[in-house]
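User: My advisor, Dr. K., asked me to get a structural model of this assembly before our group meeting. I'm new to this, so sorry if the format is off. These are the inputs:
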Amino acid sequence: MLHLWERIRGLARVELRGAEPERLLERSRLEGLTLRHLESLDACTLRAELRQEELPALERLARGCGFSLELLSLRGGRQTGRLLRRRRVLLLSLLLMGAVLAASQLFVWQFRVLGCERLSRGQVLRALADCGVEAGTFAPGIRQEEVRSRMLTLLPELEWMTVNVSGSRATVLVRERRETPELRRTAPADIVAARPGIIRSCTVLEGLALAEPGDAVLEGEILVSGSVESLSQPPRQLRAMAEIRAETWRELIAVCPLEMLRIREQGAVSRRFSLLLGKNLRYLDWIPGKGLDECVTIVHEYTVGAEGLFALPLTLRVEERRALLPTDAAADRTEEMKAALLRRLEAETDGEILETGFSVGRRDGLLIVTLQAHCLENIAQTREYVP
Amino acid sequence: MKHLPLVQKLGEKLELPGEALGEPKLSIWGDRLALLENHGGILHWSDELLALRWGGGSLLLHGADLRIRAMDGAVLLLSGTLTKLEWKE
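Assistant: The format is fine. Below is the predicted structure of the whole assembly, which you can bring to the meeting.
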């Protein structure tokens, strides 16, 4: 930046010739001149760069020391001014650009959303647009409190949010509401079987055990009762607690159409270019290539500006249309479906998976993948009494 | 024993940095760049040697392709490949 400022003020490169250049350097140092990029060509010649405004002082010193001074080049300063005066269109363009840049800083053209976990960036931006904050909004007109109140109403998942505008860029900070942790419940309840199986072990912490290891149980069958009999008192109702481990046999099914449409990666692409000036004005628009019937549209937007510094209200939008090709799902989706079924089984099983097996079939234009699994898992499920 | 000037004595008592009192200071980055502050003037300069008046004596910086990147009344920035430093009374 400092160097740029020096260039604007104007720099001169000179060649000095004379006996003992050190004498001249010493004199210029004492005069307070700033010399840069010194080059010693030989014992009597050196080159240096200095500010144009210091040139007369150096000339005077050089004369005093018996040195000859040759001006090699002048850069920046008046030379640039003269150049711009001759090229008025260039000067006007630069001024216009500066004015546009300054004016564009008053409007929001770029959004950055931070802190989203469950909500998507799109949801936040759409809600923000409903609150009147979108591309092209006059930044000083954004009322933080009003936007926050409306956003919290529109998106109940939000706990807090704010919009920080810096130049033409708005940073939307959101904090999502945390799920209230479930408190320990005390309502009377039974323990029932979550799925059919053969019980291998029972650990009852509270309640009356009705099943024991070796029993085969069906889904929904009461394993531990919350109603405890007493000889002297009426039956006591409590919340049964237990861990019942049982061998279970699970069957999970995944289905997808045999013929699917896939986005073609290469070839047959139609692109549509749009240049958006400001919020709505579409300045340029053309469609090379042919339109496609079965296609998906992928939109890429490139905003003119420097990332993190500023953005101009000029966006190049490329809408890329790609053909959808029918493909045989059985060929490449079977493994994917098997992996998905395994993931689902692991997520649903509270225990260990002893054995797994897959079967793949086709019926009525559908691909059916079935996972059979043998597990040892906790099947205890709390079921509260219905009053 | 060498007697220090009064200003230097005072500076030491007050724990002021030496360069604030006009004492010469040398900073070196690797063997490529040297910053010399408050030197007393250039005695000799060539591609292989830069000799400066340094306090009561002189400082000699030997090296190769030594170039003065910038200099003003108080500071001199030297670049090149430094090989040897020498102080002379």
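One thing worth pointing out at the meeting: Chain B has one helix and six strands.

User: Perfect, thanks a lot.
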